[in-house]
Amino acid sequence: MQHSRWKLARERKLVDGYRESPEIEQERQEHRLSMALAKAVYDRRTELGLSQAELAARTGLTQAKISRIEGSDTIPTLPLLAKLAKGLDASLNIAIDADDARVTLTAHNAA
After folding, report:
1. Which residues of 15-44 are buried (b: 16+ CB within 10 A; e: fewer)?
2. What is the pTM of this model?
3. Which residue ranges does the record assign to the HTH cro/C1-type domain (predicted)?
């Protein structure tokens, strides 16, 4: 088998004009958004020096739920996102464009 014929998806797009189906592109966008939320929650939690169990206690969620959020294994509801932001003492910002999705947690200023 000639491995030199294998191409990454991005190479196929550039060279061959290959396009994935709209369903696959949508799934990739959803996954990127989920991963962005997971990273933002993890980064803010570790910045605060909290364990998953401590964050769970602050939010009224379980440690398992925090783990699933950080592992991007769940689709959070708006009330859950509000609990996370409050527990992380931050504002949750989500920006969704056609080709990009960004999630940030901005720390509240200490009064």
Report:
1. eeeeeeeeeeeeeebeebbbebbbebbbeb
2. 0.75
3. 41-95
Q: Where are the domains of the chain?
A: 22-107
CATH superfamily of 22-107: lambda repressor-like DNA-binding domains (1.10.260.40)
How far is Cα 51 from Cα 99, in angstroms, rounded to an integer?
33
Q: Which of 36, 8, 49 is nearest to 93 (CA)?
A: 36
Question: Each residue of 3-39: pLDDT tens digit?
Answer: 555 556 666 666 666 677 778 777 777 788 889 899 9
Q: How many CB atoms are closer than 10 A to CB 65?
A: 20
